Please model this.
Amino acid sequence: MKNRLVVVGTQWGDEGKGKITDYYACNADVVVRYQGGNNAGHTITFDGQRFALQSIPSGIFKPNIKNVMANGMVVNPVSVVSELEALENRGIKDYKLYISNRAAMVMPYHSVLDGAMEAMKGGKLIGTTKKGIGPTYADKYDRIGLRMGDLLDPEYFAMRLRDALTEKNMILRMLGMEEMTFDAIYTQYMALADRLGKYICDTSVLINEEIAKGSKVLFEGAQGVMLCIDHGTYPYVTSSSPTAASVPQNTGIAPRYIDNVLGVCKAYTTRVGEGPFPTELDGDIANYIRERGHEYGTVTGRPRRVGWLDLVVLNHARRVSGLDYLSLMLFDVLSGLDTVKICVAYELDGKRIDIMPSTIPQFQRCKPVYVELPGWKEDITDVKSFNELPEAAKNYIRKIEELTGIKVAVMSVGPDRLQTVTLHDIF
Ligand code: GDP
Ligand code: IMO
Ligand code: MG
Model:
């Protein structure tokens, strides 16, 4: 049995990473969110209750688990406080939380500028969550960002804020927008420091100590490989890298500590926001899947775009993120269809390709090449083993394994923690 598992989305996000992280958290000592911020929405359902976490790691429901928000995240302290309050109001009061002192901090001007930049793009929207994720990462790399650890040093925080505001107010003036005042932000963030200060620490030291002790550590990715800043459908991506390759950098551990990577994959595909999506469906089948899978954004409520499973995407994720196993999610949603399709290649300008093109115009010209398999009518939401599945559903799994060379280690047949079937023990 391996001690360090990375959970990574293999599509355009919302694959069920929250559910599967919570599932494996039963065995974990530490759960680490390693990138993204409150653009994520991770849903966890158990004992008749449904929670949607945005930046808090999905191990928060288990009092013994150390939950880490690592340096690769962008942390919005306002949102963290309201998430914690919402959890506490629902009885989740006994938890362990650690926030990296090196994590980039989302400031009020970031979400304002996120919205303003999107508005300026006219018809060429990215469709961001408007949480200020892109502008916060941009400031990090531009070296004018503030970090969570700055909250613990009011003088330094004030200096960094003044410097950043000089630039941000210049931009806001240029856009004809209201400027932001130092005093208001300073007062608000010092109050947040009082509330969150006890959680802020060097999380790389903590994770390395846990690894040295032999603890079981689960790394929880947000978004998905196709939203990766490097390997996704740029520019229709988020501003961080969700791949397993980013885990060492984003958490401060050595690459050799990653034992296994679990690719979380819907039995079909969804996308929220703009950008190419070769297997996208419209009409009756799209509506059927959207309603059965409740495919509406956890963060923004937007209807998710829906399509068939795309193995060009999955194989791309396998290559760039090194997937050892798959977790097949929302499998129950496909029951009731006469046939199901799997995209095995694209046709681009008359040529068959199985590698993802790098530019949007090429991607948009890609036509999916499908294999069509018999569907199954049976409800599978109570299935407890692979053998209980209808033959056609078994074949669907076998086909995915055959065409990707990756074993399905776990399948999910409903949103509840109990509606999860282990096929191979991996953690
Ligand atoms: P994440 O962002 O990857 O954590 O995924 P989201 O939580 O945004 O979206 C996944 C949605 O599917 C949530 O509403 C989950 O409750 C739901 N879900 C997860 N697994 C299953 C499943 O196997 N079947 C069904 N029907 N719903 C599921
Ligand atoms: P989880 O972790 C699905 C999408 C947005 C937009 C693009 C850029 O729940 O899977 P951003 O606000 O990050 O700058 O938006 O990325 N996006 C997601 N889509 N699931 C997510 O997270 C997402 N996080 C960002 O819709 O298209
Ligand atoms: Mg989500």
About this structure: The chain has a mean pLDDT of 97. The pocket of magnesium ion (ligand 3) is lined by residues 13-14, 40-42, 298 (CB under 6 Å). The chain has three domains: 4-101+200-260, 104-196, 264-422.
